[in-house]
Automatic annotation (TrEMBL), chain A:
Any GO molecular function: transferase activity
UniProt-listed InterPro entries: Amidase (IPR000120), Amidase_CS (IPR020556), Amidase_dom (IPR023631), AS_sf (IPR036928), GatA (IPR004412)
Enzyme Commission number(s): 6.3.5.7
Cross-referenced PROSITE patterns: AMIDASES
Subunit text: Heterotrimer of A, B and C subunits.
One example of a Gene Ontology biological process annotation: translation
Matches recorded under Pfam families: Amidase
Cellular component GO terms, alphabetical: glutamyl-tRNA(Gln) amidotransferase complex
Protein name per Swiss-Prot or TrEMBL: Glutamyl-tRNA(Gln) amidotransferase subunit A
Length: 499, 503
C-alpha cells in the first residue's frame, strides 16, 4: 500500500488493517512521518515531531501482534497531541516562550491512556499560547496555515491539531476546549471535534488555562474515529477531583448506530443574526432540513441568557487564568530572564514574564487580576458566575424539551491570517456559539456540513447534548455524516486542494 | 535593635483595655500532604518529598486528603464549633518564591468549622471562655532559607534556598473572635488558650503540636482602647510566636508598647511585628494598610467538601474527654496540687502515669518514677517520655517489686537503668544483674557479725550510747552485700546484736 493511500485511511481502517496483518504499525507511522516531512513546512501544524519515540511505539505494537497478543481498537494508529499535555521526554511549551525547552517529569493521565491504548504519538501540535485564541496566531512559535487555504487561520486554540488532520499528517489528534478550541478549529478545517462533558476526560497533566472550563477531547476526520479516541481517553481519574466517577457514555456504540429518527432537535434563536456569514447560515439551514428528512422533529428554542455568555466567559476565564499562570515566575522551570546575580527575584520574575508571555496572555492576566480584585469581585467575577448558573439552567430547561441542540459551530468560515490579530473583540466573536456549552459543562461536537458558497471554505455544524449524554452527539453526528457523505458522494475533506 | 519606648504594665492597664485576637496554625500529623501523596515526615533531604502537585508544576492538580478533612472536623467539634454542611476551598493569590503555585489553597468565606468556644483555666483555677471565630483547612508553604544576611531575614541576604518538602503539609488555622474583658490577665489568657489548644490537639491525636518543631505557630493580634470605651483600637499582628512563654511575653510587650505610643499622642500603625525570643521585644515587619488584596476565589480544581451529618455525629461521639476536664479529674484522683499537676503536664507525663496506674501501680509511685528517674533520663537523651525504651507496665512492675520489699529504691533505679539499656523486662534485669534485696537472715547475720568484728572501736561507741555511730556499721554491711540489703533491717540487726535500743 502506498503512503498516499495509508495517510487517507481512517483510524478505524488503520487499526483494522494492522490487526489483520495487512499493514504494520511501523509502515503506518513512517507514512505519516513522511507526510509531515513533506507538508509541515507549509502547514506548521507541529511544534515537535518525535520520530524516534513514534517509531519505537509502533515497533512495540508490531511486536505485540507478533506475540499473538490482542490489540486494542486504536493500536498502532498515529496521533497528533496538542502541546498542552505533559509528556515525559518531549517538550511541553503550551505555545509559549515561557515554557520553551521545558521537559515535564510526568505524563498527563490522557497521555498515559493513549499509551495504554497503543496509540502512536507522532509529536506535539501548535496552539494559541496557553490556549488563548481562535486562530493559532497567538502561538509564540508562529502561525499554522489552514490546509484548505494556507493564508487562512486553522482555528484556535487547537489549530495545529485540526490542521494536522486536514493535511493528512495524522488520522487522530487531541485538542482542548475552554471556549471552543476543539470545535471551532474542526469547523474551519472540515474535520470532527468533540468537547466531552466537563469531567469526562482527566485534566491531570493538561496545563491549565481556565480550570472550570478546560476540557480535553478527541479530534478526527470521521465521527467513528472521534468516538474510538473518546473512549480511549475518557474515564474517571482519581488524580483529577473534578473527573466524573461514572462509566464513560457508550460513544462508540452510538457512532456505529447513527440515527435521528424520532429525536427532538432544538434550534436556538440566539445562535443567528448579525455577524453570521450568509453561507454559514445557508449550510446550517440545510443541515436542519436534512435532520428533518432523517426523521427528527425540530423545536425552536429561546435562550436569552446565551447572549450574556461571551461577557461572562471573558470574566471567568481570565480570572482563573490570572491565578493559574501565576506559577510562571522563573523560579523552578522554564524561561528565566535577567538573572545576572544582581537582580532581585521580583525583578527576574517581572523580566521573565515580560519576555515570556505574549500580548493576549498578558491582556487576560491583567483583565482577570482586575476582575478578582476586592471591590470589583462581586460586580465582575461574582456576576459572571451568576450568569453561568442562569445559562446552565436554561440548558437544563431546553433539554427537557429536546434531545440535542444544533447550531453553526462558528459564525464565519476561516478568516485570513492577520485579519483579526489586532482586534481582540472580533476574534472573541468566533466562539459565540461554542462558549455557552463550556459555561454549562455539557458536551458538544462539530462536524462538517458543507462549504460556504461565497468562499468555498468548510462550515461546521455544532451538536450539543446534556452532560454525560455524550453518546447522543455520536448518534446524531454519525447519521448526519452518513447522509452528507451520501449526498456529496465523498467525505468533504476530499474537496480540499492538495498541498 | 531599635529601642522601643514602653509604658509600665500597670500604667498601661490603668489607662487601656487590651483586645486580642489569636490565630493558631496547626500542622496536622497526617501521613501524606493535604493535596498529594507526598510524605509529611520532617527532616528529610531538602526537596526529596515533592511531586508535580506540591511543586505546582504545570498541569498538576490537587486531591483533598480525607484524613485532613476528618482532623479539621474533629478540631472543630472539640472547639464546640458548627460544622459546615457544604464548603469550598479558595485560592489566596500572592507571590512568594516558597509558594509553588503563587497561590495558597485555603478556605475563605466558607470555613469547615465556625462559631465555637474553648474554656481555658487560668492559674488560679478561674475559667475564661475564648470564643472561636472559625477553623479552616489550608496548605503550608515551602521553607525559605536566606543566606548571607546578618539576621537570617531576606533583607541583606545574597541569595535564598528553597525547600518544598513542607509545601502542601496540611494546616488548620484556628482564629478566635476578639478576646475582650481579660484586662490585666490578657497575656495569661493568651498563654492559657494556646496551652489548652495544644493539649486538645494532642488529645484528639491529630497532631503532636510541638511548637518547638513549628507544628503549632501562633500569631498574636493586639489592640488597646481607652478604658470604658467600646471601639477597637488599631491592631498589630505579632507573627510566629512559637512557645507558650513567648505568647505571654509578646502580648505583654505589645500592651506596653501600644500604651507608650498612645499616651505620647502617637498612633499605632497596622503592621506585622517580629517577636524576638532573646529579649521578648517585637519589631516592625510589613505595613498592613488593608490594601493587601489576595483576590480570593473558589478553587476550581477541587470539589466542595460536604461532610455527611451522620459522619459528623459519629466523629462527635468519638471525641476524647476534654483535656481540662480530664486534668481536673486526675488531679483530684491523685490528690496533687495545681502546681504539681502543671509540672506533670509540662513534662508530658500524664498519659504515661495514667497507663502505669492502669497497669497496677499506685499513683504516688507512678508519678515518682515518671517525674523523677525517667524524666531525667528523657531530658538527658533529648527525647519525649513516651519515646523511652520502657513501658508503663515495666514501671508498674518495678513499683510492685518495691512495695513487695524485693527491691529498694537504689536497686529499683538500677533495674530501670537496665530496662532502658535494653537488657529486658524488669524481672529479667533483676535476674541477670542479681539485684534482689538480701533478705536471708543467715547471710545478713554473718555480714553484720563481720562488720562488728572488723570495727570494734565503733561497736564500743554504740554500746556506750552513741547510737548515731551505727551508720558507719550499716555502711560496711551494705558495702559487703553490694547494696542488696535492706538498710533499715541491717540497722535493726546491728542494734539488736549490740544490745542497744534506739531509745
Amino acid at each position: 500500500m502506498t503512503d498516499n493511500i495509508i495517510i487517507k485511511l481512517t483510524a478505524a481502517e488503520i487499526a483494522g488493517k494492522i490487526a489483520a496483518g495487512e499493514l504494520t504499525a511501523v509502515e503506518v507511522t513512517e507514512a505519516h512521518l513522511a507526510r509531515i516531512e513533506a507538508v509541515d513546512e507549509k502547514v506548521h501544524a507541529f511544534l515537535h515531531v518525535d520520530r524516534e519515540g513514534a517509531l519505537a511505539q509502533a515497533r512495540a505494537v508490531d511486536e505485540k501482534r507478533a506475540r499473538g497478543e490482542k490489540l486494542g481498537p486504536l493500536a498502532g494508529v498515529p496521533l497528533a497531541l496538542k502541546d498542552i499535555f505533559t509528556t515525559v521526554g518531549m517538550p511541553t511549551t503550551v505555545g509559549s516562550k515561557i515554557l520553551e525547552g521545558w521537559i515535564p517529569p510526568y505524563d498527563a493521565t490522557l497521555v498515559k491512556n493513549l499509551k495504554a491504548a497503543d496509540v502512536v504519538i507522532l509529536g506535539k501540535t501548535n496552539m494559541d499560547e496557553f490556549a488563548m485564541g481562535s486562530s493559532t496566531e497567538n502561538s509564540a512559535y508562529g502561525p499554522t496555515g489552514n490546509p484548505w487555504d494556507l493564508t487562512r487561520i486553522p482555528g484556535g486554540s487547537g489549530g495545529g491539531s485540526s490542521a494536522a488532520l486536514a493535511a493528512y499528517e495524522a488520522p487522530l489528534a487531541i485538542g482542548t476546549d475552554t471556549g471552543g478550541s476543539i470545535r471551532q478549529p474542526a469547523a474551519v478545517t472540515g474535520t470532527v471535534g468533540v468537547k466531552p462533558t466537563y469531567g469526562g476526560v482527566s485534566r491531570f497533566g493538561m496545563v491549565a488555562f481556565s480550570s472550570s472550563l478546560d476540557q480535553g477531547g478527541p479530534c478526527a476526520r470521521t465521527v467513528l474515529d472521534a468516538a474510538l479516541l473518546h473512549e480511549a481517553i475518557a474515564g474517571h481519574d482519581p488524580l483529577d477531583s473534578t473527573s466524573i466517577d461514572a462509566p464513560v457514555p457508550p460513544v462508540v456504540e452510538a457512532a456505529r448506530n447513527g440515527s435521528v429518527a424520532g429525536m427532538r432537535v432544538g434550534v436556538v434563536k440566539q445562535f443567528r443574526g448579525e455577524g453570521y456569514q450568509a453561507g454559514v447560515v445557508q449550510r446550517f439551514d440545510e443541515s436542519v432540513e436534512l435532520l428533518k428528512s432523517l426523521g427528527a422533529e425540530i423545536v425552536e428554542l429561546d435562550c436569552p441568557t446565551f447572549d450574556l455568555a461571551l461577557s461572562a466567559y471573558y470574566l471567568i476565564a481570565p480570572s482563573e487564568c490570572s491565578s493559574n499562570l501565576a506559577r510562571f515566575d522563573a523560579m523552578r522551570y522554564g524561561l528565566r530572564v535577567g538573572d545576572d546575580g544582581t537582580r532581585s527575584a521580583e525583578d527576574v520574575t517581572a523580566l521573565t514574564r515580560e519576555a515570556g508571555f505574549g500580548d493576549e496572555v498578558k491582556r487576560r492576566i491583567i483583565l482577570g487580576t482586575y476582575a478578582l480584585s476586592s471591590g470589583y469581585y462581586d460586580a465582575y467575577y461574582g456576576s459572571a458566575q451568576k450568569v453561568r448558573t442562569l445559562i446552565t439552567r436554561e440548558f437544563e430547561k431546553a433539554f427537557e424539551e429536546v434531545d440535542v441542540i444544533v447550531s453553526p459551530t462558528t459564525p464565519t468560515t476561516a478568516f485570513p491570517i492577520g485579519e483579526r490579530a489586532d482586534d481582540p473583540m472580533a476574534m472573541y466573536l468566533a466562539d459565540l456559539c461554542t462558549i455557552p456549552t463550556n459555561l454549562a459543562g455539557n458536551a458538544a461536537m462539530s462536524l462538517p456540513c458543507g462549504l460556504a458558497p461565497e468562499d468555498g471554505l468548510p462550515v461546521g455544524l455544532q451538536i450539543i447534548a446534556p452532560a454525560m449524554k455524550d453518546d447522543r452527539l455520536y448518534k446524531v453526528g454519525a447519521a448526519v455524516e452518513a447522509a452528507f457523505v451520501e449526498k456529496w458522494g465523498h467525505p468533504l475533506l476530499e474537496e480540499a486542494p492538495s498541498l | 535593635m531599635t529601642v522601643t519606648e514602653l509604658l509600665s504594665y500597670d500604667a498601661a492597664l490603668a489607662a487601656f483595655d487590651p483586645v486580642m485576637g489569636l490565630e493558631v496554625h496547626v500542622e496536622l500529623g497526617t501521613r501524606t500532604k493535604m493535596f498529594c501523596g507526598c510524605s509529611t515526615e520532617l527532616g528529610a533531604e531538602p526537596n526529596s518529598q515533592t511531586c508535580p502537585t506540591c511543586l505546582g508544576l504545570p498541569g498538576s492538580l490537587p486531591v483533598v486528603n480525607a484524613i485532613g478533612v476528618e482532623s479539621a472536623i474533629k478540631i472543630g467539634l472539640a472547639l464546640n464549633c458548627e460544622i459546615a454542611e457544604w464548603c469550598r476551598f479558595a485560592r489566596k493569590n500572592y507571590f512568594y518564591p516558597d509558594m509553588p503555585k503563587n497561590f495558597q489553597t485555603s478556605q475563605y468565606d466558607e470555613p469547615i468549622a465556625f462559631n465555637g468556644y474553648l474554656d481555658v483555666q487560668l492559674e488560679d483555677g478561674e475559667i475564661f471562655r475564648v470564643e472561636i471565630e472559625r477553623a479552616h483547612m489550608e496548605e503550608d508553604t515551602g521553607k525559605s532559607t536566606h543566606i548571607g544576611g546578618a539576621t537570617g531575614r531576606i533583607h541583606g541576604a545574597s541569595h535564598s534556598l528553597l525547600d518544598y518538602n513542607r509545601a502542601g503539609i496540611p494546616l488548620i488555622e484556628i482564629v478566635t473572635k476578639p478576646i475582650e474583658g481579660a484586662g490585666e490577665r490578657a497575656p495569661e489568657v493568651a498563654k492559657a488558650y494556646v496551652a489548652e489548644l495544644r493539649e486538645l490537639i494532642r488529645a484528639l491525636g491529630v497532631s503532636e503540636a510541638r511548637m518547638d518543631k513549628g507544628q503549632m505557630r501562633c500569631d498574636v493580634n493586639l489592640s488597646l482602647r481607652p478604658n470604658g470605651t467600646k471601639t477597637f483600637g488599631t491592631r498589630s499582628e505579632t507573627k510566629n510566636v512559637n512557645s507558650l512563654r513567648s505568647v505571654e511575653r509578646a502580648a505583654r510587650f505589645e500592651i506596653q508598647r501600644h500604651a507608650a505610643v498612645l499616651t505620647s499622642g502617637g498612633t499605632i500603625i497596622q503592621e506585622t511585628r517580629h517577636f524576638h525570643e532573646d529579649d521578648g521585644s517585637t519589631t516592625s515587619g510589613r505595613i498592613k494598610d488593608n490594601a493587601e488584596d489576595y483576590r480570593y476565589f473558589p478553587e476550581p480544581d477541587l470539589v466542595p467538601v460536604a461532610p455527611a451529618r451522620e459522619w459528623v455525629e459519629e466523629l462527635r461521639k468519638g471525641l476524647p474527654e476534654l483535656p481540662r476536664v480530664r486534668r481536673n479529674r486526675l488531679r483530684e484522683e491523685w490528690g496533687v496540687s495545681e502546681l504539681d499537676m502543671q509540672s506533670i503536664l509540662n513534662a508530658g507525663a500524664v498519659d504515661s502515669i495514667v497507663a502505669t496506674i492502669e497497669a497496677g501501680a499506685d499513683s504516688a509511685s507512678a508519678r515518682k518514677w515518671w517525674m523523677g528517674e525517667l524524666a531525667r533520663n528523657a531530658n538527658e537523651q533529648g527525647v519525649a517520655l513516651e519515646e523511652l525504651a520502657i513501658t508503663p507496665s515495666d514501671v508498674a512492675r518495678v513499683s510492685a517489686l518495691v512495695s513487695a520489699g524485693d527491691l529498694n529504691d537504689k536497686l529499683a533505679r538500677q533495674v530501670i537503668e537496665g530496662v532502658l539499656a535494653g537488657e529486658g523486662t524488669p524481672d529479667e534485669v533483676v535476674e541477670k544483674r542479681g539485684l534482689k534485696v538480701v533478705s536471708d537472715d543467715g547471710a545478713l547475720g554473718t555480714a553484720v557479725d563481720e562488720a562488728i568484728a572488723g570495727n570494734a572501736g565503733i561497736a564500743d561507741k554504740i554500746r556506750g550510747g552513741k547510737v548515731a555511730a551505727v551508720g558507719a556499721l550499716v555502711g560496711a554491711v551494705m558495702k559487703a552485700t553490694r547494696g542488696q540489703a535492706d538498710a533499715a533491717k541491717v540497722k535493726d540487726l546491728i542494734l539488736e546484736k549490740l544490745g542497744v535500743s534506739e531509745g
